[in-house]
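Support request from a user on the community tier.

User writes: "When I paste my structure tokens into the form, the page sometimes reloads and wipes my input. The last time it worked, I copied everything first. Here is what I submitted, just in case something in the input itself triggers the reload:"
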């Protein structure tokens, strides 16, 4: 499986299909056998760091922007974000390019929204501190990141924003792997939530993703890519999250 034909009619939204097409064309999304940090052998791998030219950056910004618009429309009780926050390092360009795309789509709503990101190490000179861009105090913060696996980085971001006086109103990621959190005996057959599900449960924070594992399987099925569909379905059965 190398690409998705642009003239194929898909049951998933166009912006999702276009995003996946961009992922395939740039080898951002690859199929094979990949060892994850958790030790699991995954039949697919997503690397947002490969979005490093202007066309690809535009593709991911468009996908994030439409995901955010849908997320807010589906959750009308969520306050409109004052700040788009991208955790260092991969989240930094994601926050910047997504905010520019949101402004392009609707300048009246997004033109005065700010962006911000953190430093890995706080500066003790110049302006100092650990935050670059807009201050977070007394703001509604929407966090953008790439993929959440164990939830460690997400928890660190929640604590950071809290320390800075901000209020997180949601998390948006590129890909929701929909798999249960790792354990010492990962093949124990015990149901567990996904990292995103656990964050929703612990903190009551709404989350969304551009695409999910189910979306990938659906689009591959429409392309009659039986081999990759079978591999992804087997992986889903083995590690499916309980949420």
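"...and here is what came back when it finally went through:"
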């Amino acid at each position: 499986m190398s690409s998705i034909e642009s003239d194929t009619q898909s049951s998933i939204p166009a912006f999702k299909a276009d995003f996946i097409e961009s992922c395939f064309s740039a080898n951002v999304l690859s199929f094979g056998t990949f060892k994850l940090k958790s030790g699991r052998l995954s039949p697919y791998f997503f690397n947002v760091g490969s979005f490093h030219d202007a066309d690809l950056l535009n593709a991911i910004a468009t996908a994030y922007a439409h995901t955010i618009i849908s997320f807010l429309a589906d959750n009308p009780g969520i306050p409109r974000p004052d700040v788009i926050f991208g955790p260092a390092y991969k989240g930094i360009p994601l926050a910047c390019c997504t905010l520019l795309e949101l402004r392009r789509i609707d300048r009246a709503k997004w033109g005065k929204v700010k962006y911000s990101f953190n430093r890995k190490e706080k500066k003790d000179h110049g302006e100092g501190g650990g935050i670059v861009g807009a201050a977070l105090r007394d703001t509604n913060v929407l966090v953008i990141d790439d993929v959440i696996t164990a939830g460690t980085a997400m928890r660190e971001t929640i604590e950071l924003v809290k320390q800075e006086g901000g209020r997180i109103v949601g998390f948006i990621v590129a890909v929701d792997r929909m798999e249960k959190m790792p354990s010492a005996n990962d093949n124990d057959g015990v149901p567990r939530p996904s990292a995103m599900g656990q964050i929703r449960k612990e903190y009551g924070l709404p989350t969304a993703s551009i695409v999910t594992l189910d979306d990938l399987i659906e689009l591959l099925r429409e392309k009659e890519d039986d081999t990759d569909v079978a591999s992804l379905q087997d992986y889903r059965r083995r590690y499916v999250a309980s949420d």
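Agent notes: The reload is a front-end session timeout and is unrelated to the input. The mean pLDDT is 88. The longest strand covers residues 114-123. Escalated to web team.
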